[in-house]
Design a protein that fits this description.
The structure holds 2 protein chains of 2 kinds.
Chain A lengths: L4 E5 L4 H12 L5 E4 L7 H6 L8 E4 L2 E4 L1 H11 L11 H17 L2 H7 L2 H22 L12 H6 L3 H11 L3 H4 L1 H11 L2 H6 L3 H17 L1
Helix pairs in contact in A: 1-3, 5-6, 5-8, 8-12
Chain B lengths: L3 E5 L4 H12 L4 E5 L8 H6 L8 E4 L2 E4 L1 H11 L13 H27 L3 H22 L12 H6 L5 H9 L10 H12 L1 H6 L3 H17 L6
Parallel strand pairs in B: 1-2
Antiparallel strand pairs in B: 1-3, 3-4
Helix pairs in contact in B: 1-3, 4-5, 4-7, 5-8, 7-10
The chains are: A alpha+beta, B alpha+beta.
Chain lengths: 218, 229
Amino acid sequence: MAEEVMLLDFWPSPFGMRVRIALREKGVDFDLREEDLSNKSPLLLEMNPVHKQIPVLVHSGKPVSESLVMVQYIDETWGGRSPLLPSDPYERARARFWADYVDKKVRLGRMVWLSTGEAQEAAKEEYIECLKVLEGELGDKAYFGGERFGYVDVSLIPFYSWFYSLEESANFSIAEECPKLVAWAERCMQRESVAKSLPDQYKVHNFLLELKKKLQAQ
Amino acid sequence: MAKLKIIVSPTSFFCTRIEWALKLKGLEYELTFEDWSKGKSELLLRSNPAHKKVPVLLDDGVVIAESKVILEYIDEKWKGGDLYPLLPQDPYERAQARFWAQFADDKCFIGTWGACRAEDAQEKEKAVEAALESFTFLEKQIKGKKFFAGDKIGYLDLVAGWISHWLGVLEEAGGLKILDAERFPSLHEWAQNFAEIPPIKECLPPRDMLVNYWTALLSRLRSSAPSKL
């Protein structure tokens, strides 16, 4: 029943992408509602009164917010197919730790495309360092959890759609800095759930250029 | 069997919440204290190279960092039978607990801390207003309930637990008032009930030690770079 699961979303949001991927991994039919963030719908404000942000999952009328909370909810509710978190408590803790790391650090990407000059250089260095830590954690594994695509992969892969824009804005190559990480990203993109959920990188780039203009005009 | 060990700092409520969880589960553990005056220990840097922060749980060779991650680990590893449940069973209830735990840390605590750090009077007033708004949301969550988890404490109570003891300290050190009993009657009552529960009370660090620590920390931060939030 498609109308039972609704996702309030905004296409370039990496946080929205996480939830799209999770729902598609589980084969859940959902109604995707695109929000205009400059004119938030009454439904969004009702379903997420605390943060008034996307993404929001509405399942049988009940809202769940915060992308990683949503991904865990999806994993627990539609348990059987394609488990995103492993079953061992330590492996689960490890997955949660690294997804949290992504949340804390990969947002640095925003500073890379927003800033200029020395500030941008510094942001870029910090961002590359974080990607390298993640690459270190990945090691020689196919995915962060091992052989199977899972929670950490879902938490990080959306930011791949922003890589091109970051590279253009700060003049660097993430593939050169972190080849294993980019190889991992391309592996994830082979999955239908990921390919369907990530927007085209050039579309993202144009969006970020427009957004930057708007922010600078303010 | 190797004992459970937590790397802690004596003033950090992020660490105390781990002790609370272990006590509720009836588990024995050892504390190993960081002495910040000596810089971060080899053990801490080795155990949590990504963040270099406490708490870190050492469980028979396995290392886990990030307090909320540790709480879920403890709940999942020691579950069933008579063992005290921290998180609810139902996925929707679990999502709510996780959402509000994140909110309590990211908005209520960070908001309060930001208000403490603000030196400019106008900046402080704005920061306090923002913190009060966050606490208003939390008040709504506890209204009509004895504890966030219901009749007995659970995960969200442990995460919000700093409010019952450390908030008063931050208010004193930061020169502000957040938890006004008239404005937040349910939260105020919850805080008092929470702090009285024996395993909770046992782990509360002495108030004057906390006041000294946070006052000194704020004054040190003020005399260095201006606060950037």
